[in-house]
Amino acid sequence: MTDTTQHTASSLSGLLAVLGIRLLGTLPLRWTQAIGAAIGALLWRLRSRDQHVTLVNLEKCFPEMERQEREHFGHRALVENARGMAELAWVWHHPDKALAITQGHHDAFGEALATRQPVIILAPHLGCWEVLNYWLASKANMHAMFMPSGIDRLDRLVRRSRESLGSTMHPATARGVVSLVRAMKKEHAITAILPDQVAEPNAGLFADFFQVPAWTATLSSKLIQQTGARVFMAFAKRLPKGQGYQVIMHDPEPDIYSSDLQTSLNALNRSIELLIGDAPEQYLWSYKRFRVRPAGAPDPYKKSRKKRSSST
């Protein structure tokens, strides 16, 4: 495929993606979430890749859970994940309305802002992280990192939405990290990071996540040490029937501030586990969190082929 053909295909896919998002975003939030829930239920019935990944993750993280219970929870989680993906169309197009139906308060967070202390919000793939971005931007000088999808039209839509309420996006590059640290130190900015993304090969260490080794990004712990920031774990919990969102915020485990990187990462993952406990079905269990394995460990997501017994 030539460069011109690739560019044309990318432009077309970007146009279709944005048109689909715009169309879905015109519907009421409750309807958008209902469509997502229906898609999630269908993905479960079709034994999709998302269903497979969800069940693998649940089996590894909750080995004590009975199979029937795991199936029931997995179904609810996949429906909730799809509901969360669909609602983004509405959220991206109505940031002001999304903020208006979001509630939350945390005394320690308010005190940290009042003292102009650098703040790092660690927000895993839980609830609606886009809504959390709006809420944080309404409270403080918010800076965050942006990883482009490679689809220009879609990236412009998402970035414009994220910056519409005052957030500043930095590229997810070494230069972007430098500019982010500078903003936190000189402008008393706060930042939000997705701490449970699988790290690049040279940017992580293994740390237990639900007692399973997970390749964990070191960025959060390094930023804590570089900026002396106060850390909060947070997510925007999705309320039933399109009623809005509730920002949930906790202090992390104290060891997250340790100068020992491994100790800090272990505390980070334990803090994520505790946050997930507030709404376990809203965590993105369909994400391949354990796709990077220690040397010699098998890929947990690879489906084993059952050998057919030959008839004699």
Radius of gyration: 20 Å
| Quaternary assembly | single chain
Low-pLDDT residue spans: 1-12, 306-312
Taken together, the total number of domains comes to 1
Q: Figure out the total of helices.
A: 11
Q: What class would the helix/strand composition place it in?
A: alpha/beta
Q: Overall 3D geometry?
A: globular
Q: What percent strand?
A: 5-15%
Percent range for helical residues? 40-55%
Described by strand count, sense and barrel closure, the largest sheet is: 7 strands, mixed
What's the number of extended β-strand segments? 9
End-to-end distance? 49 Å
Strand order, sheet with most strands? 1-9-8-2-5-3-4
Mean pLDDT: 88
Give the SSE string: HHHHHEHEHEHEHEEEHEEH
Brief digest:
It is built from eleven helices and nine strands.
What would your notes on this structure say?
It is a single chain. With 312 residues, this protein is of the alpha/beta class. It has one domain (8-282). 50% of the residues lie in helices and 15% in strands. It contains eleven helices and nine strands. The chain has helices at residues 3-25, 29-45, 49-61, 67-93, 95-100, 107-114, 129-139, 152-163, 174-186, 219-227, 261-276, and strands at 102-103, 119-122, 142-146, 168-171, 190-193, 204-209, 212-217, 230-238, 245-250. The strands form two sheets. The protein has a seven-stranded mixed β-sheet with strand order 1-9-8-2-5-3-4, sandwiched between helices. Strands 6-7 form a two-stranded antiparallel sheet. Strand 6 (204-209) and strand 7 (212-217) form a beta hairpin. Helix 1 (3-25) crosses helix 4 (67-93) and helix 1 crosses helix 8. The longest helix is centred in the first third of the chain and has 27 residues, at 67-93. The protein is globular. Residues 1-12 and 306-312 have low confidence and may be disordered.
